Amino acid sequence: LNRRLAEFGTTVFAEMSALALRTGSINLGQGFPDTDGPEEVREAAVRALRDGRGNQYPPGPGVPELRTAIAEHQHRRYGLTFDPDTEVLVTAGATEAIAATLLALLEPGDEVVALEPYYDSYAACIAMAGAARVPVTLRPDPEQARFRLDLDELRDAVTDRTRLLLINTPHNPTGTVLTREELTAVAELAVERDLLVVTDEVYEHLVFDGAEHVPLATLPGMRERTVTIGSAGKTFSFTGWKVGWVTASPGLVSAVRSAKQFLTYVSSGPFQYAVAEALALPDTYFDAFRTDMLAKRDLLAAGLTEAGFAVYRPAGTYFITTDIRPLGESDGYAFCRSLPERAGVVAIPNAVFYDHREAGAPFVRFAFCKQKTVLEEATERLRSLT
Ligand code: PMP
Ligand code: GLN
């Protein structure tokens, strides 16, 4: 393994899911739903397979039906207009979108300012591009039960070598939804310092309690300098399909496509047709999905609180970040390693998403994209901790 990747080892998700299997624990670690997405979308995939649509290499940028559906979805939800032919690219999940974007846009030695804690593939992809990450730590605000962005810290992180800002909202793992004010400040900084912005918005449909998902590309000056990343895995509960996308101006999309063509060349065909149908589902689907997840959030948040955790109630995503210090614990990694034996539950230590490990040490993430009975059983088990 080369020096660029050596520090990363095995992803925490693989490690913790293997631990769950080995110990027969309830897996609230890796974020994947335990029920599949809509029947009619599965049927659409079967139809595509059977009708021979996408069984051979589809077009590199993605099948036109899906590119059009992505553009229409952005227009319907946010009033953003993207040309399906030049401003949309289908990728093998958001993971490939992140990799292709960073490999396409970064020069060796460039700096990337990213919010910390960050989704684990960001650091690895920045490293593969030979660039350097400059983390800006989201600060816990126990009073508001939220992690927030310190705009002065963000500003101070930008140097003459900064090439781009890497943003994620709704934010994994903290569940923070950046506010319009916070995002406006990000946008102003990007314009002032002439930076590109890559924004991972895979949880765009999972926002609660009246929080608003504000796509960065909708803010003044941002349409031309923003690469927006989305995924069908999260919105339609098909994480195994690996269908994601990028929307951006033609020059940026063309750059990302240059990298993508040598990573996967094209993305899996039949699923693209099915996701095109999924994106056209009526708003009732998206509303029902969010309402269902909201009930699960409340169930798990109440259970974790009862079990003695301090809960950062997420305004978005399907993750809850907790602070384990009220349980008399301080090392999230050690806690997560011992949790299967102590309570038969698996969670993720947030520290793995930090460069400043000590800042993330007491935080542990639980996923609530699971059936109600599973969440009830998990919280019952966790009550044995105290
Ligand atoms: N970004 C974030 C913030 C995520 O949480 C995930 C997956 N959990 C991804 C990207 C990757 O998405 P995909 O499965 O579509 O590759
Ligand atoms: N994004 C999911 C999570 O944060 C898992 C993705 C993965 O396993 N790489 O849990």
Automatic annotation (TrEMBL):
<feature type="domain" description="Aminotransferase class I/classII large">
    <location>
        <begin position="26"/>
        <end position="382"/>
    </location>
</feature>
<keyword id="KW-0032">Aminotransferase</keyword>
<keyword id="KW-0808">Transferase</keyword>
<dbReference type="InterPro" id="IPR015424">
    <property type="entry name" value="PyrdxlP-dep_Trfase"/>
</dbReference>
<keyword id="KW-0663">Pyridoxal phosphate</keyword>
<dbReference type="Pfam" id="PF00155">
    <property type="entry name" value="Aminotran_1_2"/>
</dbReference>
<protein>
    <submittedName>
        <fullName>Pyridoxal phosphate-dependent aminotransferase</fullName>
        <ecNumber>2.6.1.-</ecNumber>
    </submittedName>
</protein>
<dbReference type="InterPro" id="IPR004839">
    <property type="entry name" value="Aminotransferase_I/II_large"/>
</dbReference>
<dbReference type="InterPro" id="IPR015421">
    <property type="entry name" value="PyrdxlP-dep_Trfase_major"/>
</dbReference>
<dbReference type="InterPro" id="IPR015422">
    <property type="entry name" value="PyrdxlP-dep_Trfase_small"/>
</dbReference>
<dbReference type="InterPro" id="IPR051326">
    <property type="entry name" value="Kynurenine-oxoglutarate_AT"/>
</dbReference>
<dbReference type="GO" id="GO:0008483">
    <property type="term" value="F:transaminase activity"/>
</dbReference>
